Amino acid sequence: MKNFTYYRPTTVEQAVALLDNKWGPVELLAGGTDLHDLQKEYIAQPDKVVSLNGIRGLSGIKASGSAITIGANTKLADIAENSAVRKHLPGLAEAASQVGGPQIRNMGTLGGNLCQRNRCWYFRDEHVPCLLRGGEKCLAINGENRYHACFTDSYACVMVHPSTLAPVLIALAAKATVQGPKGKREIELSRFFQAPAKADEREHVLAANEIVLSVSIPIGSKNASYEVRHKQSYDWPLVQAAAAFDLKGGKASNVRIVLGHVAPVPLLAGDAAKALEGQPVNEETAAEAGKAAIKGAKPLSQTGYKLQLVQVAVKRAILTAAGAKKYWQV
Ligand SMILES: Cc1cc2nc3c(=O)[nH]c(=O)nc-3n(C[C@H](O)[C@H](O)[C@H](O)COP(=O)(O)OP(=O)(O)OC[C@H]3O[C@@H](n4cnc5c(N)ncnc54)[C@H](O)[C@@H]3O)c2cc1C
Fold first, then answer.
1. 223 to each of 217, 236, 292, how far by Cα in Å?
2. Which of 99, 187, 225 gets mutated to test ligand 1 (max ligand atoms within 8 A of its CB)?
3. Residue of the nearest CA to atom 37 in ligand 1?
4. What value does the mean pLDDT take over residues 112-140?
5. Is the model's pTM score more than 0.90?
């Protein structure tokens, strides 16, 4: 690991002042479960590391009548176990409880989860000229790509976005509050992520000198997240679907379905939402939404298998959100 200077500010303003206006020379540190890995692999080589852990008020979960607000430095384990989150946002509790293993969830934070770097093996290998580290092209497009995107249209890099909290938060219409040198601003989570195409871009739209303070999530919708995983722990899903909708008289409205691990950004599945909108929620309509979710997919040489998984994940997320019996669990 390259030597760095460690800072532990006690206010957000001090932390912002320590940041740089371009990515690279300075990194924020929350739980360190991703950043330290990147440093050990020489993928991140900051001169300064600015810890968020001395700043009061950046962690904690507050519930009001209409929303739950979660501080960016809140641990994933606390999100998974919080009673208000489990009651009103079961999709988020489920996603947080599935991340990594107990050690990752007890160190990893909400802010770090949303801002973590992608897991593409070409990106994470310092010896490989990945597009996102200055290389000429994305090596996964014609390379080893079985864990990569199946929605590939127009993306220069075909990694998949690694956060499993992100699809749920987008489905729930959450907003992040961030702070930079000019003060605070709000970003809808549906606009928070971007597909990076070069070395000075990240998987999100934050400027290098902005910090996520909290995420606010409206409550009241039926919601769920369903992940298809290769292993039960210490891994990322192959595919994930998050669903949120209102259910009145048995019919779904305000439907939002978001796919994870199928594209470089969490993907709003508009056709799937349209297929369910105004329909009674049952196995047939959920399956129809699943079919609609794969419209527009363009798998790589090794990701065609994800299309079946997407259909299953969407169907099961919808049925779970509606409170249906989980017939797939024995
Ligand atoms: C084995 C393993 C399995 C995993 N499985 C999953 C999984 O299934 N699903 C999933 O979603 N994740 C998974 N993860 C990733 C894990 O969720 C992240 O490593 C963790 O959430 C990062 O949080 P952190 O607080 O440790 O972030 P750090 O490592 O401290 O930081 C990560 C990045 O976020 C930035 N950052 C941190 N906080 C803020 C902030 N408040 N504002 C702006 N930038 C910030 C940092 O500068 C850094 O670039 C897994 C990780 C491992 C090692």
1. 12, 21, 19
2. 99
3. 112
4. 98
5. yes
